[in-house]
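job 3f2a | input accepted
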Amino acid sequence: MEHELGRRANPEMLDRLLDAAEASFDRHGVGNASMEDVAAIAGVSRGFVYKHLRNRDGLILAVLVRRARRFNDRAASYINAQPSLAQALVEGILLAVNLASRDPYFGLLVGAATTDPANRVAGASEAAAMLTDELWRPVLERGRERGELSPAVDLDDVVQWIMYLELILLASRSTFGIDEVAHERQLRTLFLPALLSPVAETAAPVEPGSRA
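job 3f2a | predicted structure (212 res):
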């Protein structure tokens, strides 16, 4: 998938195109932005935008993936600083849900990865799975090496489950008004016991609202 996002464009040019796309989205909304407007803002031809980003869905997806990767970079430092796998899982999932509920671009990637017809973007489901794997697989592998992750669970299943959980928690927050305190309790009592080894100790909860 990586080669499809900005194929043949050097990194500087790709950033220029995606910066222009974000400016267009901010000005007109994602639904009303056009390849022509992006080209005008970037100072290139419309054909140049099509050459490197294929179509409108490719443009939108490239913006979303770049923004999500920046989140992953920030989140990885925060998650890796947690004292245990249990704490890393709870804090990392809640951080992602908090960001998705506030950031229109991150939230759009979540919506585009589901069957939401208003936001569906080709390739978003695959991108969401790829980004979740990039962030969480190293964390889970370290937890397994330390004996915190149950040997009975499959890493691929856990990564998928984390992605599903983030979607569910985001939807429950927007639809049912479930708050972060309830989400943290549910993660600790329902999610962690299925993953942790019998000898792993669950870290003490932190005060809600302390996350980035």
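job 3f2a | The radius of gyration is 19 Å.
job 3f2a | closed
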